[in-house]
Write a structure and sequence with these properties.
Strand order of the largest sheet: 3-4-2-5-1-6-7-8
Number of helices: 12
Order of helices and strands: EHEHHHEEHHEHEHEHEHHH
Oligomer: single chain
Number of strands: 8
Length: 271
């Protein structure tokens, strides 16, 4: 692992799962761009792609034929975390890429002991001490890969699209988080819910936002991620939107989200 530009202080990174079992809600987009925004404000960040689709890896410019070692080898115990880490086009942001091999990991692990703690075991690697934040992009389902991620994380951030069925899917995820806390990771916390694809011209969007804030209160971030074509275009260029178009509303929203996240963590440490 090259670790270019990283400080070597012994850090205790905040490990954050970015999760929602529903696809198309902006989960991977949020993982990529929140990680980039944190790196932009001089934090050392590692993003781990735990989705077999590998979209976070592609969105950070890592082509499929360039992924020699991945999260599959890490979770199967065939490679250390340090061996799987690669640089990205974003200074201060490193990546553990995903490959399609990860699809088979669930079946391969099903009869193995401690199968829910494979990622947590990999996190004993001292390479983590190089980072301030570790963001993990979960698959869009509540499977063994997601359980591994939740069992290894300090907190969960849930991207939530402002649509009619949003709260229904969120209730299921909240139940899963409680189950993980009870059985695998008592210290797991809800890090926040971020409203995505927000369109202020749409009355339904506004009503969903009101309902979510009424239901969850301060858990919901003040920042909202607007529906923005530049955010949608950026992955096809292999770039986070902050590199693709820094001035667009989507980029500015992710910078605001990173700032709000830092304030929350600062307040938490001070409490």
């Amino acid at each position: 692992m090259t670790a270019k530009g990283l400080s070597t202080a012994n850090k205790q990174p905040e490990i954050i799962a970015v999760a929602n079992q529903k696809g198309g809600v902006g989960k991977t987009t949020t993982a990529i761009n929140l990680a980039t925004a944190l790196a932009a404000i001089k934090k050392d960040v590692l993003i781990i792609d735990m989705d077999p689709q590998g979209n976070a890896s592609t969105g950070l410019g890592r082509e499929r034929n360039e992924r020699e070692c991945s999260s599959y080898e890490v979770i199967m115990g065939e490679a250390s975390l340090a061996e799987a880490i690669v640089d990205t086009i974003v200074p201060g942001l490193h990546l553990v890429p995903s490959t399609i091999d990860l699809t088979g990991a669930e079946l391969e692990l099903v009869h193995q002991e401690q199968r829910t703690f494979r990622l947590r075991r990999a996190f004993r690697d001292p390479v983590l001490e190089n980072y301030d934040y570790v963001l993990i992009d979960c698959p869009p389902s509540l499977n063994l890969l997601t359980l591994n991620t939740l069992a290894a994380s300090h907190s969960v951030i849930v991207p939530l699209q402002c649509e009619f069925f949003a709260l229904e899917g969120l209730s299921l995820l909240l139940q899963t988080i409680e189950t993980v806390k009870t059985n695998f990771n008592p210290s797991l916390e809800m890090g926040g819910v971020i409203l995505t694809m927000y369109d202020k011209r749409n009355n339904l969007t506004e009503q969903v936002a009101i309902d979510v804030r009424s239901y969850l209160g301060d858990v919901v971030f003040d920042t909202v991620i607007p529906r923005n074509v530049r955010v949608s275009e950026a992955p096809s260029h292999g770039k986070p939107v902050l590199l693709y178009d820094l001035k667009c509303s989507g980029s500015q929203a992710y910078l605001e989200l990173a700032s709000e996240l830092l304030k929350r963590h600062k307040a938490k440490k001070a409490a």
